[in-house]
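REQUEST ID: PR-0412
SUBMITTED BY: lab tech R.K.
PRIORITY: routine
TASK: structure prediction, single protein chain
INPUT:
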Amino acid sequence: MGASINIQGNLKEIEIQRDGKVVGSIFFDPTDPSIIDRLIKAREMLENMPIPSIADNEPITETMAKLRAADKAVRDAVDYAFAYPCSDVVFGDGYAISTKNGKSKFEQFLDGAWGIIVKSMDEEVKTASKRQAKYLAKYG
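STATUS: complete
OUTPUT:
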């Protein structure tokens, strides 16, 4: 066997619940700010995406094709944001564009993920700053 390099990440788990039932987990690195860029870009990609209505006056097959396309766009955006295919864990078999009280599952997910990620990143920066200050104090 040849040489290998083992790079240790700092993955943090986010438990995913649907209707109060734990269905799995997804992961992110709170020391890698690129997830913030990707989450912002994912939100921008979907911000003005039209969600078709079944009440539209078109054949149901056309409406369902548009709904499937919208669901795929949302799932692709979530997978992009987390840099791996995790949308099936998040949304399961249902449509990511389904709503509760007018708020889509995607919006519910993004709001929750954003809060967890920002808080975790803030904690990580504080921990790193304390460690760095203690380390540098030895030389000051």
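NOTES: The CA atoms of residues 78 and 108 lie 12 Å apart.
REVIEWED BY: pending
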